[in-house]
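Hey team,

Filing this mostly as a record. A colleague (T.K.) asked me to run one chain through the structure pipeline before their review meeting, and I want the input and output archived in the tracker in case anyone asks later how it was produced. No errors, nothing strange. Just documentation.

Input sequence:
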Amino acid sequence: MAENSTYVPRLAIGLVHYPVRDRQNKTVATNITNFDIHDIARAAQTFGVEKYYIIHPMKEQLMFVDRVLDHWRTGQGAKYNPMRKTALGSVKAIESVEKAIEDWNTPGTLLISTSAREEGLKKYSFSELRHEMHVEKKPVFMLFGTGNGMTTELLRSCSGVLESIRGAPPQDYRHLSVRSAVSICLDRVMGPW
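Output structure:
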């Protein structure tokens, strides 16, 4: 794959807390965790993500994210750990996927979901998505679900779905935390090859 080393691929990510599914296949909203805010922000900073959106419709949950961000960006945390302040610089709490896409405001964006489920959607391998980003120079907004994954309706609204992360044979165990999955995906599409 011939990649242009002077071009910087454009990528935003969204951690979707609604609409997602629970174990009974009902549409729910999941709680935002402190670990997801920090750990995904650090991975996003490492791999050059422009914006990391935490997507939740409930005001109380968004206020929780804003309190965490304020502590580390301008409060005591900013003095205590400047590296954390840097990592959290790209994080934004927002009400919906649509508002996140509108906020990023990048024409020609491919909206790519991640899912371990077979949904009959256009599939992108990691190398195909990398080619779209690095060679074709298409900006990408990548969505990661919480709970038991994003709803079928949300998945179908995307340009395609990224291949799932496979576990080592013969077991193919792949019940990863979303933090681990984000890090692996970012490395595969943005890391050096």
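Quick notes for T.K.: Residues 59-73 form the longest helix (15 residues). The first strand starts at residue 11 and ends at 16.
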